[in-house]
Amino acid sequence: MSGIRCVTEGLEFPEGPVGYPDGTVVLSEMAAGRITRVSPDGTTECVAHVGGGPNGIGLLPDGRLVVCQNGGSTFGTGFWPYDFAGAAQVFRPVGAAEQPLTPALQLVDPDGSVHTLTTEFRARSGRRLPLIRPSDVCVDSAGGFYVTDGGTTHDRQRTMTGLLYGTPDGELEEIVYPLEMPNGVALSPDGSRVYVAETRTRRVWEFQLSAPGRITGARGLATVPSGGPLNIGGADGLCVSADGTILVATLGAGGVTAFAPSGKMIGALPLDDPMTTNMALGADDVLYVTLASSGRLVAVDDWRSALSR
C-alpha cells in the first residue's frame, strides 16, 4: 500500500473518524463501546465510555460530540457478506448484544461526560417513533446535524428508515423516507446539498437543501462499483473535500471510491480490508480511513494522486 501509512492499530472495529486541526483524530470503537482520540504519533486515549455500539460521530461548534449509538452487537469472526463457501471471514458484528443499550443519539462533553440527547424522532406522519440503529451523522454550519438510521433485519423482514435532521436541544425529525439501509452522510462544501449512501444498493443520493433540514430536490448521483475477489460491494461512510469531491468508503472491494460533484467516478483508492467503514479529511487535507475488521486507522497524505483511474 504505497503512500498509505498506518497511524495506529489494535482498535476494536473503528468507525466515525473526525479530523481535528492539530492532526489528532477522534473515532469510535464500536466493539469496545468507547470514543478514542488518536494522536499523530499513533498513541491513543479514551475520550469517553459510551457503552453499546458507537458508530458515527459529529463535532458540534461548542466542542461537544454527537454520537450515533446503535445499541451494540456481539462481535466475532464470521462470513461476509453471505454464508457460503469462498466468502470472506472477517471480524465484524455477528449478532445481537448480550446487554444492549437503547438506540439513541448521545452527547459527549469535553470532559468525557456522556448524556442521552434523544431516543426517538418525529416521523413525516407526525408520529413519534424510536430510533432503530443510528448509523452516521454530519454537522452543518448552523450547528444542526443530519443523521442516518440504518435499521435492522429480523428473519426475512427489514425495517425501512430514512434521513433525519436534528439540533442539540434534542429535536429530531425525519426529512427523507424511505431509504434502503442509509449509512454515510456528508454535506457539500457550500452546504446546499447533502449526500447519503445506501449500503446494500451501493447508491449515493444527492438531496438539495433550501435551508438546514429542508429538502427541495433529489437525484440518484452515483453507484459504487463492485469489486474484490467475489465482485461484491457496499457503500459505507462518506466525506466531501473542499473542492466537492465525494469520497465513499467501499465495502467488499475494500478502499475508497471518489466521485466528482457531477456524479462521474474519478477513481478508487484500494485498501486491504474489505470492511473499509469510514473516512474523514483532517489537517492539511490528509485523508484518514478506518479499516474496521483489521482494527487500523490509516492516513493518505496525497490521496488525489493515490487514486487509480
TrEMBL record:
Residues 13-292 form the SMP-30/Gluconolactonase/LRE-like region domain. InterPro entries: 6-blade_b-propeller_TolB-like, SGL, SMP-30/CGR1_Lactonase. SUPFAM superfamilies: Calcium-dependent phosphotriesterase (SSF63829). Pfam families: SGL (PF08450). It comes from the Bacteria. This is Gluconolaconase.
